[in-house]
Design a protein that fits this description.
Layout lengths: L1 H21 L3 H6 L6 E16 L5 E12 L4 E6 L10 H9 L6 E7 L2 E6 L6 H27 L4 H8 L36 E2 L6 H31 L5 H31 L2 E5 L9 E8 L3 E20 L2 E22 L5 E8 L8 E2 L3 E13 L3 E9 L10
Antiparallel strand pairs: 1-2, 1-4, 2-3, 4-5, 6-7, 7-8, 8-11, 9-10, 9-13, 12-13, 13-14
Helix pairs in contact: 1-4, 1-6, 6-7
Protein name: DUF3592 domain-containing protein
Organism: Blastopirellula marina
Keywords: Membrane, Transmembrane, Transmembrane helix
C-alpha cells in the first residue's frame, strides 16, 4: 500500500504539474510563473542604467529596458529586464547588458498570454519547477519498483529464492526420458520445465497470473486519474478566466467518480493479492504419460480462512470453426477428476499451507494436441473459496504424451 501510494502520488503529480503549466492555472502562475510564459517579440524603445545606494554607501546597478509589446488585444509599454529585480555591484557588467539592447531593434521576449505587462527579456532557471518534477518522478519510480518487487517476492519462501539463485544444478532434469520429437501437433513442454522446484522436480507456471490483472487495473487507474487531472485543471483554468465550461465541469465530476472507483478497485486487488497470496504447484515429472502415477506438491500462501480448497485435473477440447462470416471457438470439458479437497483451513502469513498429493493420468486419456482448428488441453485447476476474498480459480497447464514406451 505504501509503494502504491507513492506511485499514485508521483504519477498524478507529474501529470498535474504539466497540465497546470499548459492551462496556465493559478497553481503554475503562483509557483513557477515563467514556465507558463509564451515566446514573443518586442521593440526596444529606450535603455538605461538604474542606480541605488545601499546603507553604508555601496552603489548597485540594474539594467532597465523600455519595450513595446504588441498583442492581438492590446499594446503595452513598460520598463523591464528580468521578472525579479537584478542588481549588479559591477557598473561595467550592468552597462554591458544595457548596451546590448539598441533602441528601435526587435528582440525576443516572454510574457503571460493573458497579461503582456509581465514581459521579460531574460528567463531564469526555474529551480522550483525542476525540483517538484524531480520529487514526483522519484515518487513514481520508487513506487513502481517497490510495489512490483514486493508483489513478486510476496509469499516466496527462503527455500524458493535460494533454489532460483543456485541455477538448479542439483536437480537431475529428465530430458533423456522424453519421447522422440515425432509429434508435431503436441505442444512443447519446454516452458513448463524451465523452472526447478524445491520439493519436486519442476514448478508449473500459472496460466494467467493474478499479477497481470493487477497490472491492468493499475494501468487503467493511472491513465484515467491522469486524464481526470487534466480535465479538472482545464475546468479550473476556464473558471479563473470567468469563462466556465459547464459541460467540461460535468464531465470532470463524472470522471472523478470513475477515478475514485478505479483507485478503490486497484487497492482492493492489492488487498486480495496479498490476502490470498500465490499458489504454487510442483510436479515430480513432465511431460506426463497415460496410466502413470505422479506426485504434486501444493503450496498456498496468504492470510485467510479458507472455506474450500479443491485441486482438480481436467481435460478440455477446443474447436475453432466458421459460422457464417464469424470465427467461433467452443470449448468442452471431457474429463474432470478431483485430486484433493480441503475445507476449513487457516493460513497464516509466513506459514503457507503445503500438501503432497498423488494423481494419475487415465490410461485411455487423449494426449495433448494443438492444430489450427482443434486442440486438447490438460490442466491442473486450483479452486479456492476464502472468507472476504470470494472465489478464485488458478490454472496450471500440463502436457500429456501418447502412451509410448520411453527411451531408457
Amino acid at each position: 500500500m505504501f509503494f502504491a501510494s507513492l506511485l499514485f502520488l508521483g504519477s498524478i503529480g507529474l501529470v498535474a504539474v504539466v497540465a497546470s503549466i499548459a492551462f496556465e492555472s493559478v497553481v503554475a502562475t503562483f509557483l513557477f510563473p515563467e514556465a507558463t510564459y509564451v515566446a514573443g517579440e518586442c521593440v526596444v524603445m529606450e535603455s538605461q542604467l538604474g542606480e541605488k545606494t545601499l546603507d553604508g554607501g555601496a552603489v548597485r546597478y540594474q539594467p532597465e529596458i523600455l519595450v513595446h509589446v504588441h498583442t492581438k488585444n492590446q499594446d503595452y509599454y513598460g520598463w523591464t529586464y528580468r521578472r525579479n529585480a537584478t542588481w549588479y555591484s559591477d557598473r561595467e557588467a550592468a552597462q554591458k547588458i544595457v548596451d546590448g539592447f539598441r533602441p528601435g531593434w526587435v528582440y525576443p521576449c516572454w510574457y503571460a498570454s493573458y497579461d503582456p505587462s509581465t514581459v521579460i527579456l531574460r528567463r531564469s532557471t526555474n529551480f522550483a519547477l525542476w525540483s517538484i518534477l524531480l520529487v514526483f518522478a522519484s515518487f513514481a519510480t520508487i513506487g513502481t519498483i517497490g510495489m512490483f518487487y514486493t508483489m513478486l517476492l510476496f509469499g516466496a519462501s527462503a527455500e524458493r529464492r535460494s533454489a532460483l539463485a543456485k541455477s538448479a544444478q542439483k536437480i537431475e532434469l529428465i530430458g533423456d526420458l522424453l519421447p522422440p520429437s515425432a509429434y508435431p501437433n503436441i505442444p512443447s513442454a519446454d516452458n513448463l520445465t524451465n523452472s526447478p522446484g524445491v520439493r519436486l522436480a519442476y514448478r508449473l507456471p500459472i496460466e494467467v497470473s493474478p499479477a497481470w490483472w493487477l497490472f491492468a487495473t493499475l494501468s487503467f487507474s493511472l491513465i484515467w486519474c491522469g486524464m481526470t487531472a487534466v480535465f479538472a485543471l482545464g475546468a479550473l483554468a476556464d473558471l479563473e478566466r470567468g469563462e466556465p465550461n459547464w459541460l467540461l465541469m460535468v464531465l470532470t465530476v463524472a470522471a472523478v467518480g470513475v477515478g475514485v472507483w478505479s483507485i478503490y478497485h486497484f487497492l482492493r486487488q492489492i488487498a486480495l493479492h496479498t490476502r490470498i497470496g500465490p499458489t504454487y504447484i510442483e510436479i515430480s515429472n513432465h511431460p506426463l504419460l497415460p496410466g502413470r502415477d505422479y506426485k504434486l506438491h501444493l503450496s498456498q500462501a496468504g492470510r485467510m480462512h479458507v472455506k474450500k480448497l479443491r485441486v482438480t485435473l481436467i481435460c478440455e477440447e477446443e474447436a475453432t470453426f466458421l459460422h457464417g462470416t464469424d470465427v467461433r471457438t467452443e470449448t468442452a470439458k471431457v474429463y474432470d477428476a478431483e485430486v484433493a479437497n480441503f475445507r476449513g483451513l487457516v493460513i497464516r502469513p509466513g506459514a503457507p499451507f503445503e500438501e503432497l498429493l498423488h494423481f494419475q493420468i487415465p490410461t485411455s486419456a487423449m494426449h495433448s494436441f494443438k492444430s489450427s482448428h482443434n486442440a486438447v488441453h490438460w490442466k491442473l485447476i486450483v479452486d479456492l473459496d476464502a472468507k472476504g476474498a470470494g472465489h478464485q480459480k488458478r490454472s496450471f497447464p500440463i502436457v500429456v504424451y501418447p502412451p509410448v514406451k520411453l527411451n531408457s
